Amino acid sequence: MELGKIKILNLYCGIGGNRKLWGDEHEVTAVELDEKIASIYQEFFPNDTVIVADAHQYLLDHYKEFNFIWSSPPCPTHSQQRLCGVNSGQNKAEYPNMMLYQEIILLQYMADKKQKWVIENVIPYYDLLIDGQKRGRHIFWANFYIQPKDIPPGEIKNGTLQIWKEKTGIDLSKYDGIDKRKIYRNCVDSKLGKHIFDCAFVNKQERLF
C-alpha cells in the first residue's frame, strides 16, 4: 500500500526503538527532554526533526499538526516493579504520574477523527482507569485496533548489554555518560513499533472511536 508522506510526532522518543523500522520516507518530529539522549536519536535518524523539549507540553501545543502521534510517557510510577519495591521497603511511595491519563483524554476527545494516535506504557499495578489494549508487557491506548502479535518480551535484568545490543540492533557502545541499561529497558521493540504503525496505516485496522 502506498501511504504517501505521513507527518509523525514521536514523543518521549528516547533513542527511537519504536521508530527504527518506520522507514525514512515520512516526516518525523521527535521530542526528547534529555539533550544527550536526543543527540543520540539524531545520529540514528538524521532525517528526523529532533526537538529538546517537554513532550507533555509539546503534545498540548502541537497535537493538531500531525497525522500520527506516538507517545510513551514516563512509566516508573505505574509499574508493578515499583509497587514491589515499595512493599519491600526498597522504594519510597509516590503518586502515579497522571500525565499519562491527561494525554489519553486529550487525544480521545480533542484529536481530529482523521488523526491516528497511540500512547504506550507498562501494564500498571492498579486497575486501569481508562481501558487499553494489552500487548505483551505493554498497554496501549489508541484510536485503532492493534492486532495481537507474538513478540517475545525481553527483560533487561536477564541480559548483558551485549545481548541487548544484539536483541535491539542498537549499538550504544561508543556513548559515555548515559545509563545504557535503562535506555535499552525503555526501548519499545522495533518489530512491535512497526507492527503498530502497520495497524494504523497499512492493514487498515478498525477505528475504535
Protein described:
By secondary structure, the protein is of the alpha/beta class. The chain has a single domain, classed as Vaccinia Virus protein VP39 (Rossmann fold). It has a seven-stranded mixed beta sheet with strand order 3-2-1-4-5-7-6, with helices on both faces.
The chain-level structural class is: alpha/beta
**What is the count of structural domains?**
1
Question: What would CATH call the architecture?
Answer: 3-Layer(aba) Sandwich
What is the overall number of helices?
7
Low-confidence stretches: none
Characterize the largest beta sheet: strand count, sense, and whether it forms a barrel.
7 strands, mixed
Major beta sheet, strand line-up:
3-2-1-4-5-7-6
Order of helices and strands: EEHEHEHHEEEHHH
Distance between the termini: 24 Å
CATH class call: Alpha Beta
Oligomer: single chain
Overall geometry: globular
Q: What is the radius of gyration?
A: 17 Å
- Binned, the helix content reads 25-40%
Number of strands: 7
Query: What name does the CATH topology carry?
Result: Rossmann fold
Provide the β-strand percentage band. Answer: 15-25%
Arithmetic mean of pLDDT: 90
Name of the CATH homologous superfamily? Vaccinia Virus protein VP39
